[in-house]
Amino acid sequence: MAIQDIYPTALRLLGRPVLVVGGGPVAQRRAKGLLDAGAKVTVVAPVASETLRGLADAGLLTWEPREYRTSDLDGVWFVQTATGTSAVDTQVAADAEAQRIWCVNASDHEASAAWTPAVAVVDDVKIAINAGGDPRRAMALRNAVATALETGDLPLRRHRKPGAGGSVALVGGGPGDSGLITVRGRRLLGQADVVVADRLGPRELLKELAPDVRVIEVGKTPGHHPVPQLEINRILVDEALQGNRVVRLKGGDPYVLGRGGEEAEFCRQNGVEVEVVSGVTSAISVPAAAGIPVTHRGLAKGFSVVTGHEELSEVPARPDHTVVLLMGVAQLRESAAALAGSGLPLGTPVGIVENGYLPEQRVTIGTLGTIADQAEAVGVANPAVIVIGDVVRVSPFAPQHFKTADYSTITPNRPRVRSN
Ligand code: SAH
After folding, report:
1. Residue ranges in the chain modelled with pLDDT below 70
2. Among 56, 271, 278, 325, which is least packed, fewest CB within 10 Å?
3. For residue 412, what pLDDT is reported?
């Protein structure tokens, strides 16, 4: 049979009686699929699998423990026959044909009046594939399509707005490389009607959005807030209440010094459904981009992430406790002085990574005593992550005399942003 000769359609079987003849693994699979679609399933088979019997015991389907008879077809809309005995399957199919009931015959693909496709379901999208009578080929295609849907590689976006309100997703986009967003974040981005974007984060992904997706820029730079936080909150809620799927695409992780908590709370207070998708925080990943692990056996057992000198009095001042400063460039001198004041040796290594993962990435390494002057001399600017502690020694960018023989083997991650 040629593929042109099939007519794909979607049966709505909710509450309709259907028949499955057979009690083995194929019959079980088909019965489950029919149950998922809400059909009223009767299984006819002298012997049924444990799962089928369990479903019958739970009252989810009816099992007739006996041989098939023609009257089983009375009143059914659709039949699956998979008895494993082709004479029986042929009989069921012939009886169904006579009564003009669509029948899938598992033992004779060519003769079968209807075929069961391989199916993928992602969100509210169901894809059915028939692949030239080759079920494994159909399954391989189905798996590939499902993966592409899940990762947001295929356009899952709705074009008909739902009647009800929209939603907000706070998506952590990672530090800037478009490969460091989560699969879930990328998929939600692909479904967004409106994207509220920061200056930091995977900006390249904005170029891949469909042309009618609205991008609202609310990017902040330290000390300069083009769109105040309260207004960002309002934009999220207003857009969602208009029925839009809103993605708030944030740099790093929404909950790490990113005011994601406030945004989520404001949405909930205003009756807007909100999902938070964690991201790769710059606090950990940007040091890694310079080959610096925030903890390392023998060098540091823990780390603290803070913004500047005010919080530093609370932080352990020891070279084996890594301190990560975000938004810390402007106050670097005060922060270094505060840590030295708490007793951290002036020789403690400090690394500054600007524009982590971006083509302009730059690493400056010094000590607690020298770093402020070095940063000033080379004009260190935001965005930058500052790392303080012995872990900086393992960076391949560290000067030779910082290195300890044991720890100098780590290679940095190369910036991976595509340039186009
Ligand atoms: N929620 C974010 C942090 C927001 S605060 C996260 O989890 O990463 C903004 C600060 O993050 C910047 O001032 C800088 O310190 C840091 N930052 C974010 N992306 C960066 C990058 N690509 N390179 C260097 N620093 C970065």
Report:
1. 1, 162-163, 220-225, 404-420
2. 271
3. 53
In this structure, the answer to whether residues 307 and 408 fall within a common structural domain is yes
Please enumerate in sequence order all residues whose Cβ is within 8 A of that of 276, keeping only pairs 6 or more positions apart, or say none: 169, 170, 254, 255, 260, 264
Q: Which of 291, 334, 330 is nearest to 312 (CA)?
A: 334
Question: Could you give the CA distance from residue 114 to residue 1 in angstroms, rounded to a whole number?
Answer: 12
Ligand 1, pocket residues at CB < 6 Å = 175-176, 200, 251-253, 256-258, 281-283, 286, 326-327, 353-358, 382-385
Please say which residue of 280, 308, 327 terminates a domain.
280
- Report the SS3 class of residue 383: coil
Q: Let me know if residue 205 belongs to a domain.
A: yes
| Per-residue model confidence (pLDDT) at position 408 | 39
- 126 in Cβ contact with 120 (< 8 Å): yes
Active site residue 40: no
Report the predicted TM-score, pTM, of the whole model to 2 decimal places. Answer: 0.80
Residue at 144 is within a domain: no
For residue 360, give the amino acid letter.
Answer: E
State yes or no: is 220 an active-site residue: yes
DSSP per residue, 235-269: HHHHHHHTT-EEEEEESB-TTSSS-HHHHHHHHHH
Tokens, residue 47: 């012997």
Probe target for ligand 1 pocket from 256, 326, 382, with the most ligand atoms within 8 Å of CB:
326
- Residues 198, 200: Cα–Cα separation, whole Å: 5
Q: What CA–CA distance (Å, rounded) separates 62 from 325? A: 64
Instruction: Give nearest CA residue, ligand 1 atom 19.
Output: 175
Residues sharing a CB contact under 8 Å with residue 27, sequence separation 6 or more, in sequence order: 20, 21, 43, 45, 48, 49, 52, 80, 82, 83, 106
Q: Are residues 411 and 288 in the same domain?
A: yes
> Which of 72, 220, 250, 390 is flagged as catalytic?
220
Residue closest by Cα to atom 2 of ligand 1: 252
* pLDDT score for 395: 94
- Print the domain residue range for 291: 284-417
C-alpha gyration radius of the chain:
30
- The count of other CB atoms within 10 Å of the CB of residue 126 is 12
Question: Do you find a cis peptide bond into 383, omega within 30 degrees of 0?
Answer: yes
Say which residue the tokens 């991201």 belong to. Answer: 279
The edge-to-edge listing of strands for the beta sheet with 349-354 is 302-306, 321-325, 384-388, 349-354, 362-367
Tokens 């041989």 sit on residue: 67
